[in-house]
Amino acid sequence: MPALHIENFGCRAARADGEAIGARLCALGADRRLAADVVVVNTCSVTAEADRAARAFIRRAHRQNPSARIVVTGCYAQRAPQELAAMPGVAAVVGNSHKALAPEIIVSLVSGHDFPGSPATGLRRWGGLSRAERASESIGVLAPEQSFGPKSSSFVDAASLLNSIGLPSASAPAPIWADGHFAHSFLEEAPLAPGAQTRPYLKVQEGCSNRCSFCVIPFTRGPSRSLPFATVLKQVLDFVAAGGKELVLSGINLGRWGRDLPHEANAPTSLAALVRAILQQTNLPRLRLSSIEPMDWDVDLIALMREFGGRRLARHAHLPLQSASDAVLRRMHRRYRPWHYAEKVAALVRAAGPDLTLGADVMVGFPGETDREFEETLGFLRALPFGYLHLFPFSPRPATPGWALHTASPVPIAAVAERMAALRGLAAEKTRAHRSRFVGRELPAITLHTPPALAAEGRTAALTDNFLPLEIEGRFSANRLFTARVIQLTHEASLCSIVVGETTVQ
């Protein structure tokens, strides 16, 4: 049986994509092992460092396992497919526009058949070229008229193809599947079940129609698109039937879910309505919301935190901030101001209570950021009750307005490093202060897959509903809901706890 390894880079939504590809391939008979016949590299391209990390992994994978077929997908594959196709060991590049077809493409590659295997399917590879013809042609992105038609039905009958693994091409550039239509970007068919991921991500929204000046995502994932309600509901029901306890609702711009869907009777068309429908029409014990833009926390969504928070809706909110300087936010083309953000946080705390864990993304060194503008952000962060911060330096991305702004007004590297250090110190203080409040408290939690080192100490990894990592005394299987009493905060700001009792969520 062929071995499969998937390496995920980037955000939670990207990880959901990678897990979906893996689930569909495993359903065809592939086996998840590190020494693999097929290596799927699910890339990120939000920063130059993300690109570098993906290239480094591809080189290392090819060096360590030269016979493996390396298939590159994700945002980097969409943004610069030719660059990746030329790398040694890469057998195919599948952009986000065609990510839903990645399993079929992989099946065709390992079998030695040309995708999709039958002229009757109406699908075409890049340029319709054979492997020999591609060797003498320059590789390019699919033109709009070359994009794929209806999805091939041959995929479900292709399990036998995985039994014969061919050798990678030694000389020809890898074929590319990518275009600007994003018609095959949703991986909605892979069933969700508590397995390798105790708390899997259900990606219900893809793409982004915002135009933040620093962000390449609209180019690598296309405009905002929503998974239909019926599909979402079926996924949740199937997850519950499989014994799942916690599901994370995710998306590239999650708060925009439903706005592109046609209005149908009794079908939600807003994120708040979707969350309410899931909680009312399923027995899912716990639903967690992934990152949501500040302006998308509307009155209805915040009201759900008051109604269900701490029971079936996790008391956890992640609101990307990027900067708390009004001037910087304007240069970023962000659609809120610092006072708007503070108002949303206050409303969430009132609704969910002080046990809410609040997180944010913060960018350092955006072009033109002055010391005064940075101090505005620093003061703002000090004043708000954050439980954690995701920090990163600005990285200029080709084809974005931020690229030109960086060329004209870069922030010195030394200043960026100094500001990052200041924010790391503040983030550590915030995390320790927030977690220390829960020592002696009882909190609902779910057990996770425990790392071997922690298991050897007789402890189990867990996560509270308000996103606090726990080390529970004793050894327990994953995917169990407990009430845990926090007994200690370690020097590393880890929370140690004991089990009080198994939890039934109403």
Protein architecture, described:
The chain is an alpha/beta fold and 506 residues long. It has helices spanning 12-27, 48-64, 75-79, 81-85, 102-111, 131-135, 217-221, 229-241, 271-281, 299-308, 326-332, 338-352, 371-383, 401-408, 413-436, 452-456, and strands spanning 3-8, 31-32, 38-43, 69-74, 90-95, 176-177, 201-206, 225-226, 246-251, 286-289, 316-318, 357-364, 386-393, 442-447, 459-464, 469-473, 481-489, 495-502. It has a six-stranded parallel beta sheet with strand order 2-1-3-4-5-6, with helices on both faces. It has a five-stranded mixed beta barrel with strand order 14-15-16-18-17. A four-stranded mixed beta sheet has the order 8-7-9-10. Helix 10 (299-308) runs parallel beside helix 12 and helix 13 packs parallel to helix 15 (413-436). The longest helix has 24 residues, at 413-436. It is globular and about 60 Å long. 45% of the residues are buried. The model is unreliable at 116-170 (pLDDT under 50).
Q: How is the largest sheet built, in terms of strand order? A: 2-1-3-4-5-6
CATH topology of the largest domain: pyruvate-formate lyase- activating enzyme
- What structural category characterises the helix and strand content? alpha/beta
Silhouette = globular
> Into how many domains do the coordinates divide?
3
Radius of gyration: 23 Å
Terminal CA distance: 43 Å
Which CATH-level-2 architecture of the largest domain? Answer: Alpha-Beta Horseshoe
Q: CATH H-level name of the largest domain... which superfamily? A: tm_1862 like domain
Largest sheet: 6 strands, parallel
CATH top level assignment of the largest domain: Alpha Beta
Count of DSSP strands: 18
Strand content: 15-25%
Provide the helix percentage: 25-40%
Number of separate helices = 16
Question: Please, what is the average pLDDT?
Answer: 84
